[in-house]
Design a protein that fits this description.
By secondary structure, the chain is α+β, with helices and mostly antiparallel strands. The protein is built from five helices and eleven strands, in the order ααββββαββββαβββα.
Length: 205
Amino acid sequence: MQRDLLLHDAGALATFLRAQLASLPPYTPLEAERSARIAAVLAPLYAVDSQPYLLFTRRSSDLPTHKGQISFPGGSRDPGDASLAETALREAKEEIGLEPSRVEILGALSPVYVSVSNFVITPQVGWLSEGLPSLHSNPAEVAELIQAPLAALADPAIYHSELWHHSGAAHLVHFFDFAPYLIWGATAMMLYSLLSLLPADERSF
């Protein structure tokens, strides 16, 4: 299926991602990740006039970590969560008021290890169908909701990467300059992973 079609047909994209996510290999943690804390986020995918969009949040400046950064709703797994999908849905309801019944989980992207906070975060891709439901953000956690067309996020002109060093190891850090927002860090890694599932063309990053 052509990349351009998927970037402009949300229904076709949801069907494509459901199959792609189901075929990802099982996650095998590295030794450093085995003692990490477990978390999940929800990457909410929805349609606006049939065009695929992703929903991000801008974190509150009052939070103790990652304040003001662009993220997906999510957080640590609770002992009562039956799965990481349930973690992501519970956190999305707490942060932005998204009812779990409105979300179809298409599957999970490969987990992302964040060494600075010692978290392994599993992104769950959620399909909300046409239109964004009424949401009510928790101002203690979320400063702003950001609706982003997937076609704009996939534009290679807004993307670059840098090689950073931390604790003696090199890490490739992704950046998406979705003006006026800069998406980077773990969220950008998740976005890069999602976009990398799409068929490549001469314009792909």
